[in-house]
């Protein structure tokens, strides 16, 4: 492409409202513009990158799945059938058409695909089958931020597989796990697959794929030497016994009335499938003025005040104190003492140290601490903020050390089981001629988020440094002294045609701008290879080449040039 034909919308200044580097650079490079909160227009340069990401995803998905395209607008009846019309909450945008019929803007497509499958699939012989699409989603995020990283409208690749049984699901799931590795490798990302919690949704297998970046909103725990990797919720299962200091500090005493998270959720009347991490440390005073303290992690996005003190007492045997002073002596912040007792909500960042102090003090005082365990973990565990607790612990498999890093969730695969197929009555005929409910898996990739995540990992003070596979252009050619040197222009044109013919995605920077302006634009938009064509080079039979990560330019002849561009 000729740069004179491309909308160069580069900005010199960093936009004030962009917090993270990818958002800043996507605005500065002229890839996106904001329309309204959480809504972005993709400019031509951005679309080039987006299309390359989508093309790689499609190529890999086409090896084992079939592409479909489902409507963004979905009748709410389907969501009522699945039970999610109520359960999904305010992220689901609802509206009515001119006939007053209720619809939603799809945040995901389990309902629609299951509706399709129950009509189209008749027999076990058609299974397993895997459908995918690349489609716009809408989620009315409570806090849209970081540009396209957490927007309200975004593009997802979502796939849904249908199976005769769990074994078949597991096989396809493993295949998708491998496909995701192939995709993210081709996208040039530094990523990790981590075990994820399946919550109450059913099924027993889930992995998230995280791009490692400090700006990530998630914490992931992984071993330096083995394959162990888990997201923060899942990693709670490894707290116990993973670090000598923490094990001591978080010494947990088993009590007969410790509950599973499902039991706790039922008692507290909260939804355990939500994934927002809220750590609540709360004290309660009983009638004769003794203070009790219990700690638990709630995974739901619930108002702390919704949970009544007496409910907390039911879920764990409380630690009792003679007075408020005794509570404070354990290093806890003073909380408010109301009719229901002492309430100490603690933000997650500080929670671990508060808990560690609390437990250490409690153990010193010879008190018992009760924790709540997760469903999958038979042992009674005091659940604490994993980030501070397990960082630098040996890995639970004994190999390597646990590191906690920040991750951006770019993909998520999930063994759904029969949650949707059962609710929507999606059955096919079995070998015995009897209908049975199919088993499902789902597999998502945030296509627009991947673009931002790639930038979070690849930038410097001059701008973006694209992995070659998704760069808007692979090579830029700059003719030197364009206005006065027809020789340089002709040689640049010749090289342009030659590289295009060789299959490179080339930008010929024929703009009427000074070389300095062109160079800084090309660095900002992140073109991996830059070639300058000058009279001096033509005479010497060389081109001036500079890789986007190189400190200095160097002179290369044509043959060597073609080698470095590969
Ligand atoms: P998050 O935890 O970041 O809110 P999620 O777990 O809600 O994401 P999934 O339902 O697993 O998201 O959707 C699959 C993928 O879609 C995610 O892994 C992510 O890459 C992408 N995605 C989800 N929400 C957004 C969003 N608001 N903006 C951009 N991409 C998103
Ligand atoms: Mg979400
Ligand atoms: Mg998530
Ligand atoms: Mg997810």
TrEMBL record:
Q: Which gene encodes it?
A: proS
Q: What is the lineage of its organism?
A: Bacteria, Pseudomonadati, Pseudomonadota, Gammaproteobacteria, Moraxellales
User: Hey, which family's this protein in?
Assistant: Belongs to the class-II aminoacyl-tRNA synthetase family. ProS type 1 subfamily.
Function, as annotated: Catalyzes the attachment of proline to tRNA(Pro) in a two-step reaction: proline is first activated by ATP to form Pro-AMP and then transferred to the acceptor end of tRNA(Pro). As ProRS can inadvertently accommodate and process non-cognate amino acids such as alanine and cysteine, to avoid such errors it has two additional distinct editing activities against alanine. One activity is designated as 'pretransfer' editing and involves the tRNA(Pro)-independent hydrolysis of activated Ala-AMP.
Q: Self-association or partners: how does it assemble?
A: Homodimer.
| Protein name in UniProt | Proline--tRNA ligase
Q: Where does the Aminoacyl-transfer RNA synthetases class-II family profile domain start and stop, copy by copy?
A: 56-467
Q: What SUPFAM superfamilies does this protein's entry cite?
A: Class II aaRS ABD-related, Class II aaRS and biotin synthetases, YbaK/ProRS associated domain
> NCBIfam families attached here?
PRK09194.1, proS_fam_II
Q: Where is the protein found, in the record's own terms?
A: Cytoplasm
């Amino acid at each position: 492409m000729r740069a004179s034909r491309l909308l160069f919308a580069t900005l010199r200044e960093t936009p004030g409202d962009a917090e993270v580097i990818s958002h800043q650079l996507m605005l500065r490079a002229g890839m996106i513009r904001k329309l309204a909160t959480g809504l972005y227009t993709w400019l031509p340069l951005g679309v080039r990158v987006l299309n390359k990401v989508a093309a790689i995803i499609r190529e890999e998905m086409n090896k084992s799945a079939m592409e479909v395209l489902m409507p963004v607008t979905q009748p709410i009846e389907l969501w009522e059938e699945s039970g999610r019309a109520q359960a999904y909450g305010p992220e689901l945008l609802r509206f009515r058409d001119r006939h007053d019929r209720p619809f939603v803007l799809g945040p995901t497509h389990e309902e629609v695909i299951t509706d399709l499958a129950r009509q189209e699939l008749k027999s076990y012989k058609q299974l397993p089958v895997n459908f995918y699409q690349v489609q716009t989603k809408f989620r009315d995020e409570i806090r849209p931020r970081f540009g396209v990283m957490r927007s309200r409208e975004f593009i997802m690749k979502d796939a849904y597989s249908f199976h005769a049984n769990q074994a078949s699901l597991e096989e396809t799931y493993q295949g998708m796990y491998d496909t995701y590795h192939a995709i993210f490798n081709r996208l040039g990302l530094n990523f990790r697959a981590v075990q994820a919690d399946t919550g109450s949704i059913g099924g027993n297998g889930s992995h998230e794929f995280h791009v490692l970046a400090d700006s990530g909103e998630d914490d992931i725990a992984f071993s330096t030497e083995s394959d162990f990797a888990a997201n923060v919720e899942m990693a709670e299962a490894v707290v116990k016994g993973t670090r000598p200091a923490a094990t001591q500090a978080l010494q947990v005493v088993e009590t007969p009335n410790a509950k599973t998270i499902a039991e706790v959720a039922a008692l507290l009347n909260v939804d355990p499938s939500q994934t927002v991490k809220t750590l609540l440390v709360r004290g309660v005073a009983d009638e004769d003025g003794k203070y009790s303290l219990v700690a638990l992690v709630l995974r739901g996005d619930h108002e702390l005040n919704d949970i009544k003190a007496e409910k907390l007492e039911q879920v764990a045997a409380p630690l009792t104190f003679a007075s408020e002073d005794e509570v404070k002596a354990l290093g806890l912040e003073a909380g408010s003492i109301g009719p229901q007792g002492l309430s100490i909500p603690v933000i997650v960042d500080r929670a671990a140290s508060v808990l560690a102090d609390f437990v250490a003090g409690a153990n010193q005082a010879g008190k018992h601490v009760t924790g709540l365990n997760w469903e999958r973990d038979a042992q009674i565990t005091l659940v604490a903020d994993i980030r501070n607790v397990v960082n630098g612990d040996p890995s639970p498999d004994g190999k390597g050390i646990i590191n906690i890093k920040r991750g951006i969730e770019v993909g998520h695969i999930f063994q759904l089981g029969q949650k949707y197929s059962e609710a929507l009555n999606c059955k096919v005929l079995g070998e015995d001629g009897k209908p049975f409910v199919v088993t499902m898996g789902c597999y998502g990739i945030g296509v627009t988020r991947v673009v931002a995540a790639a930038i979070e990992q690849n930038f410097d003070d001059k701008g973006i440094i694209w992995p070659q596979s998704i760069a808007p252009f692979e090579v830029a050619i700059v003719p030197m002294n364009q206005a006065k040197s027809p020789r340089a222009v002709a040689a640049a044109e010749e090289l342009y045609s030659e590289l295009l013919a060789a299959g490179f995605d080339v930008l010929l920077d024929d703009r009427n701008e000074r070389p300095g302006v062109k160079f800084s634009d090309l660095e900002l938009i992140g073109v991996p290879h830059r070639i300058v064509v000058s009279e001096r080079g033509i005479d010497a039979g060389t081109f001036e080449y500079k890789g986007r990560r190189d400190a200095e330019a160097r002179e290369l002849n044509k043959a060597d040039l073609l080698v470095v561009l590969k």
